[in-house]
Specification:
Chain lengths: ~450, ~280
């Protein structure tokens, strides 16, 4: 890669890099000196030891070298790409945007087979794994639904919503309250929860129509906090004590943990400690996720979805193209909230106990991170983001103390090296079928290509 | 979306017996920002099937004029009327920008405002927005009508791209296009809304001489092929003098001259506005 750069300058550049890294390590040690050398022993005695400093120095030095190496490599890549393109290489030799493996997979002729296989694999999981795995999977799928819903608002429409968890809470509390006070079942409350969240989305959308960017973020953030505080202080929701004993979804009035379980355990070799209700919830949320994927995909490639994208790209130009901005904004807000409501109802039935603490600001940030990490506006990206951010922490429990630290580091790295997310969104490719436009002017023999340099 | 029929609230000034020679007219159009009079009683008209230019020194109110008639600003006073060949007069004053586009006024921007992270074709498809009907349910259910509408829109957009020589980059992101092509795409995107009048806000800004010459051909071709009228704001005098049939000159928000290019060239008031007095 570096064959075309002179040897001398490469060597001196390495020296410079090392010097910079040494300086960074030294500076960091200086900053962390009191923190790393002083410690309090039993009996309030202060002990001093510099034993840890060399390790710190080495670690920071190594990390800085790596960091600088990758930064440099990235900028080198960009430059070489630009140079190659400007040299006018033939189209197929140009290092253009490489299609991601997902898009290659999605456009292959085996697409339907693969999707079917994936669905089958996911459906088999609860029958061959432990109750713990099923629990984690349910939570992960809930976050996939939440992520896809927020993706409509943030990724597609470009409206930064930091209070998304409020709509999630709306769905969960709708079910919890109706179940607690009126004894209504899951299947009645599922659409009702979604509807409540949608209406709240509309309600929030109305005052923020004129806002965008930072201001919108502040208003939605406050809305999320207000919702949590209201839930904490209302009598009807039992305040911080929350609502317990929420019914699991009904299955035609059959107790799933009775004869159905006996059958599953004896004949299908399902884990004996399995709560069959969880398997049921697993399939419900799986169905919701599949439905969501279909809906979001269809929306993205529709007149409405394009209106959202246009609004994200340029609010003035989108109006000049005949898009009613108010309507586009409201539908984005309301539709995004619908999925939060659905996920909330499923969450309440899964956890069977909810309180306002489940709907803190951190939760909004978590969902937003899923969207950003996965890839704004990219459906497979959001799914992967949810899996990474929900399942990985479960697998790395011994790391749990440093979870937030790792989380932050991951985000910084992502923003620097892959700002588009794990799986970046790709645009639909259209093929000209050669139809006809009314009053189409006859294309000139030599289309007017003048002015291209 | 709504308002498929001709708007009812129009034509209070009696029935139009002979078709108006103008397609677009402003009467008394004024725009005041605080204490600043940006536009002062501007009467401007665009004749059918012609190219009209609006010129004036920097800060004279040209872009404000565009923003007033396209609904981005609400004019303080005055009328903006559109006279379609096949229908009654439409008053555009106070309509929101998206409605104005629906009624048949499309525009481009002084600083290119493309949808950068979308493909060229998608940019044009978004231009088709106001001529399509599918709503939320249509998008979710993808019924036959929606699918057909979508296919028609794609065909229409492709044909536009073919006519104006952009089909080879249809699936490229708009931001990756060369500058001249971006300018052209903005015009094509505006054409996708099927306008009756096309408003071009300094289309030659930032183009070199060769590109400007190509733009001149493009503008004339658009007018001929699409059978529309064009209102042009431009600083490049050679372009303005070459393509337009009538020129309006504005200075400090006031219309100071109007007429065919030859007259405007030698008008002392215009020379004074541009070069100052001796």
């Amino acid at each position: 890669m570096s064959s075309n750069t002179p040897k001398m300058s490469a060597k001196s550049r390495i020296h410079a890099e090392v010097r910079a890294s040494l300086a960074a390590a030294l500076w960091f040690c200086f900053l962390a000196f009191p923190l790393m050398t002083l410690s309090i022993r039993p009996g309030n005695a202060v002990a001093f030891s510099i034993a840890r400093i060399p390790y710190l120095f080495a670690a920071v030095f190594l990390l800085t070298v790596l960091w600088r190496f990758f930064l440099r490599r990235r900028s080198f890549k960009n430059v070489s790409k630009a140079v190659l393109e400007s040299e006018g290489l033939p189209e197929d030799l140009r290092p253009g945007p490489k299609p991601s493996w997902v898009s290659v997979f999605m456009s292959s002729k085996y697409r339907s087979h693969m999707v079917a296989f994936l669905l089958l694999a996911v459906s088999v999981i609860p029958f061959v794994s432990s109750p713990y795995v099923v629990n984690v999977m349910v939570v992960a799928l809930i976050y996939v639904a939440l992520g896809l819903g927020l993706n409509v608002v943030v990724g597609v429409s470009g409206l930064l919503n930091l209070g998304y968890v409020a709509f999630y809470a709306m769905g969960a509390y709708t079910y919890a309250l109706l179940n607690q006070y009126l004894g209504w079942g899951f299947w009645v409350c599922l659409p009702l929860g979604a509807l409540t969240a949608t209406l709240m989305g509309l309600l929030l959308g109305l005052p923020v129509i004129r806002l965008s960017g930072d201001y919108l973020a502040i208003v939605t953030l406050s809305f999320g906090e207000i919702t949590r505080l209201v839930l904490t202080n209302l009598n009807i929701t039992h305040g911080p004590r929350g609502i317990g004993n929420i019914d699991p979804p009904g299955f035609f009035g059959i107790d799933l943990n009775g004869s159905v379980k006996t059958f599953l355990v004896q004949r299908l070799n399902v884990h004996p400690d399995m709560n069959v209700n969880k398997i049921y919830i697993y399939f419900i949320i799986l169905a919701i996720v599949v439905l969501t994927i279909i809906c979001v995909f269809r929306l993205e490639n529709s007149r409405l979805g394009r209106a959202w994208l246009a609004m994200r790209e340029d609010e003035i130009a989108c109006q000049a193209m005949g898009i009613n901005r108010t309507r586009a904004k409201l539908t984005a807000f309301a539709l995004g909230s619908t999925w939060a409501g659905l996920a909330g109802v499923v969450f309440a039935s899964h956890i069977t106990f909810i309180n306002p603490a489940s709907f803190s600001f951190l939760e909004s940030i978590m969902i937003l991170s899923i969207v950003v990490l996965g890839g704004m506006g990219s459906i497979p990206g959001v799914i992967l983001g949810a899996v990474v951010l929900i399942i990985l922490p479960e697998q790395l429990r011994f790391f749990s103390q440093y979870r937030m630290l790792l989380f932050g580091a991951l985000m910084v790295l992502m923003m620097v090296f892959r700002p588009g997310g794990l799986i970046q969104s790709t645009r639909e490719v259209y093929i000209h079928r050669g139809g006809s436009r009314k009053n189409a002017p006859v294309p000139e023999a030599a289309p007017n290509r003048g002015g291209r340099s | 979306m709504s308002g498929q029929q001709a708007p009812a609230a129009s034509n209070l000034a009696g029935p139009q017996s002979a078709p108006n020679p103008n397609i677009l007219e402003t009467r008394d159009l004024s725009m005041v920002f605080g204490g600043l009079i940006a536009l002062n009683r501007v009467d401007l008209s665009v004749e059918r099937d012609t190219i009209t230019a609006l010129i004036g020194p920097n800060g004279s109110g040209k872009t404000t004029f565009f923003n007033c008639i396209t609904g981005i600003y609400k004019p303080t006073r005055g009328q903006v009327s559109l006279y379609p060949a096949d229908g009654p007069k439409i008053s555009l004053r106070g309509l929101p920008a998206d409605k104005v586009t629906y009624m048949g006024l499309a525009r481009t921007f002084q600083n290119i405002r493309l949808f950068n992270n979308l493909t060229v074709l998608e940019n044009v498809l978004i231009g088709r927005h106001s001529r399509m009907k599918a709503g939320l349910l249509g998008a979710l259910l993808r019924n036959k009508r929606t699918r057909q509408e979508e296919l028609d829109a794609i065909d229409y957009s492709f044909e536009l791209l073919v006519s104006y020589g952009l089909d080879h980059v249809a699936n490229e992101l708009a931001k990756n296009l060369p500058y001249g092509d971006q300018r052209r795409l903005e015009i094509v995107r505006a054409l996708a809304t099927e306008p009756k009048v096309l408003l071009l806000d300094e289309p030659a800004a930032g183009l070199n001489i060769g590109e400007t010459a190509a733009l001149k051909d493009l503008i004339i071709r658009v007018k001929e092929a699409e059978k529309i009228s064009i209102l042009l704001i431009e600083h490049d005098m050679s372009l303005v003098m070459n393509v337009s049939q009538k020129i309006f000159v504005i200075d400090y928000g006031i219309l100071i001259a109007q007429g065919p290019p030859e007259e405007i060239k030698s008008d002392p008031k215009v020379i004074k506005a541009y070069l100052g007095e001796e």
